[in-house]
Amino acid sequence: MVSLLPVLAAGGVAAHDLLQKKHSLLRNFPVLGHARYAIERLGPELRQYIVAGNDEERPFSRDQRTWIYASCKGENNYVGFGTDNDVENCEGYPIIKHRTFSASPPTTAPHGGEDVRLPSPKVLGGPRGRRHAFRPSSVVNVSAMSFGSLSSQAIVSINKGVALAGALHNTGEGGLSPYHCSGGDLIWQIGTGYFGCRDEHGRFDLARLKATIERAPVRALEIKLSQGAKPGLGGVLPEAKVTEEIAQIRGVPPGQDVISPSRHSAFHDVDSMLDFVELLADETGLPVGIKSAVGDLGFWEELADAMVSGDRAPDFITIDGGEGGTGAAPLVFSDAVALPFYVGFTRVYSVFARRGLTDRVTFIGSGKLGLPRSATTAFALGADMVNVAREAMLAIGCLQTQKCHTDRCPTGVATQNRWLTRGLDPSLKSVRLAQYLQALRRDLLKVSEAVGVQHPALIDPDDLELLYGQRVGRPLREVYGYDAEWGRLGEPLRREVAALMSDAPTGGSTPVE
Fold first, then answer.
1. 3-state helix, strand, coil in the chain (%, to 5)
2. Taking the mean position of all CA atoms in its chain, how far away is CA 228?
3. Which region holds residue 74: left if phi is over 0, alpha if psi is between -120 and 50, else beta?
4. Cα–chain-centroid distance for residue 154?
5. Are 116 and 442 in contact, with CB atoms under 8 Å apart?
6. d(Cα 24, Cα 30) in Å, to the nearest integer?
7. For the domain 126-501, what is the CATH superfamily, name and number?
8. Which of 2, 31, 388, 499 has the greatest count of CB atoms below 10 A from its CB?
């Protein structure tokens, strides 16, 4: 009888398939048709581990993930036998040009095993004289990812990790949770929903903002205008992820989809936005910046014009590339809305460079910049710091299964499912994040040394070129239309960075008294 069970089971499936009308494939090919759906479900995993080449996968290739995984585990992240990238035929392949001689003395920074100091070249809030201006002690920090989108264990892992690495942790627009207060310094992101700093009607509440800041290690505020994953759309946290705890932190009803609008209600144009920036800075003393993906340049032209007088200005500008993507979004927004980072960033930087404003604001790059080559390119184009998001997720266990929007993340990073999140151990994953950040800083410093400078912010657009197969290479300055001094820090800042790299202390973010 036991031997007949498989036959009876197959017969039952066949009978069901023949009678159902939902799937024509199963109606025509009972039992056998299920193999097609099984392969479809397993397709991403099959391609990821068996079919795809080392550089074919997106968003992150196998080579890129391997480097992050090895780095975060403190393992050997070197490669052997030369590059397997198709340098001979690739269009727009970036090449970093090393120097034989340099006026800068070589560093003693190790190739691996120890941390290196790599502070921001600029003081956040310094040019505007903010009361709590400070110099971030790491040029690599963790980008905005909310509690709710990520699990509590993931948030704790990241916050403890940045504390170990001396970096900063952006809260994301979902409010400031207890899990963000695990030892790491914070940048509190204020989104269009004003989560964590809103009244009962969803309007911005300054008193609540100030009350929260008093009990949390918030070092700066970031006003989110848009993000690369869903620019101009606003956010959606599905009902399945809106627990009682998340609802309380965000100040919203539990058990409902949480939808943030596409635009702010506290201001409506550049003039009122700058008033809002100055209000937050005056009331809190903190540096205040803005974050946006790049579309129409009219906004940036108007903002730069308004900043020329120096009366009002954001302290930092975070540019997010359209290829960024920790947030769930409609396919058309992920694929086709907002410019990719390098195009968007260089257009915005050029707007400020033409007005002589670049030394007065800190530029932060975001959007797949958590690898040494891409980060180096961002610094060469004028970025002062870079933020990492998906790379940080990979460091704490993400496998790029791309199930973030389903609440079924198998490694417990992007889910509120308690069974899945129990597998993520913050005591281990925080160390892995710290080791990844340290490895990236080490590689950036070694690349800087190869170029002949002491800090990646001193790399300029003439130090890289883009190859177009084996036919021609064009300097970044020419490709992106930069004038002679664009992409370079002013001489006072360059001298300041050189002095920092000679004798600056290691440790946490350096305050400015």
1. 40, 15, 45
2. 9
3. left
4. 15
5. yes
6. 10
7. Aldolase class I (3.20.20.70)
8. 388
Query: Tokens standing for 88?
Result: 């001979």
417: which 2 tokens? 């499912």
- pTM here? 0.88
Q: Which residues of 99-130 are buried (b: 16+ CB within 10 A; e: fewer)?
A: eeeeebeeeebeebeebbbbbbbbbbbbbbeb
* pLDDT above 70: residue 108: no
Q: Tokens 């992820």 sit at which residue?
A: 241
Checking if the pLDDT of 27 tops 90, the result is no
Tokens of 220: 């700066």
Cα–Cα distance measured from residue 401 to residue 381, given in angstroms and rounded to the nearest whole number:
32
Which pLDDT tens digit goes with each residue over 31-56? Answer: 777 777 676 666 666 655 555 555 56
User: Which stretches does DSSP call E strand in 86-232?
Assistant: 91-96, 134-135, 140-142, 168-170, 185-190, 218-224
β pairing state of 472-475 and 510-511: unpaired
Classify each residue of 408-446 as buried b or exposed e, where b means 16 or more C-beta atoms within 10 Å of its C-beta: ebebbbbbbeeebbeebebeebbbbbbbbbbbbbbbbbb
| C-alpha to C-alpha distance for 485 and 351, rounded to whole angstroms | 14
Closest CA to 112 of 501, 507, 446: 446
CA atoms 143, 148, 154, 155: torsion sign: positive
* The residue type at 116: V
User: Taking phi first (over 0 means left), then psi (-120 to 50 degrees means alpha), and beta for anything else, what does residue 456 get?
Assistant: alpha
Residue 456 preceded by cis peptide, ω within 30:
no
Banded model confidence at residue 506, pLDDT cuts 50, 70, 90: very low
Higher-pLDDT residue of 104 and 424 is 424
Give, in order, the Cα–Cα distances in Å from 260 to each of 195, 237, 272, 380. 9, 9, 20, 35
Give the number of other Cβ atoms within 10 Å of residue 513's Cβ. Answer: 4
Alpha carbon separation from 346 to 46, 122, 381, 387 (Å, rounded):
38, 19, 7, 17
Q: Which of 342, 348, 266 is nearest to 307 (CA)?
A: 348
DSSP 8-state class, residue 150: B
